[in-house]
Amino acid sequence: MFVRHDAGRGRVRTAPRVLRDTFGPRMQDQVLGNAADQAHTQDAALAVARLMGVAVDRYVIKAEPLTTMTRDELVRVVAPVVQYYLTGTPHTGL
Question: The Tetracyclin repressor-like C-terminal domain covers which part of the protein (predicted)?
Answer without folding.
Answer: 15-86
